[in-house]
Amino acid sequence: MSAAAVEPPCDGASDLLREAERLTAKLPGYRVEIIGGELTVTPPPDGPHGEVLTDLLLAFAPVHRGPTRVIQGIGLWLPDGPDDYAVPDLSVVDADYRDHLTEANCYDPAVFHLVLEVTSANYGNDLRKKVAAYAIAKVPVYVIVDRIHDRLHLLRNPVANEYDEHRVLAPGQHATLPVPAGAEIVLDVAAVLGAARP
């Protein structure tokens, strides 16, 4: 089910990757990522961020069996830079993801079927940088719970550094998310955004 592996650096960790590892150890609860060659540190999530992730984890429970798993905060190795990686809030991955560990506690993007981010203080990363990064990594579906603009973004069909399909959903609409094995998850956008609202 998984595609070919991404080639991680073979000459040891770079200064940037070592700094990311140092910050991860020094700042528990913070999310450290390298996207587009830039180190990003995000403070711990607030209560509504955690609440909506719990609601979404429960909504995704039906696909946490058989060929896939639903995991919070799993590292995704990004192919667009020698040290790049992201840590999506929620991911649907192949059940054999453990066999695809690459570098810096991250996994090959080929095992990722869907990634989901809930925006926080650095929402520009979720709305711009990560769109390109996840598309380049060929993650089939990217969902953004946009707490700043009170919208849910559903991006599908990665092409180069963007997604071919981008739907913006508002309260009152429903989002149907395709997941492996023909399953679908339907989200009430108003309920998701209501739980996420600070």
Automatic annotation (TrEMBL):
A Pfam family it matches: Uma2
Lineage top rank: taxon: Bacteria
Q: SUPFAM superfamilies from the entry?
A: Restriction endonuclease-like (SSF52980)
Q: What is this protein called?
A: Uma2 family endonuclease
Q: Which UniProt keywords apply?
A: Endonuclease, Hydrolase, Nuclease
Keyword presence, Transferase = no
Q: GO MF terms on file?
A: endonuclease activity
Q: Where is the Putative restriction endonuclease domain?
A: 21-184
Origin species, per record, is Streptomyces zagrosensis
Please indicate if the UniProt record lists ATP-binding as a keyword: no
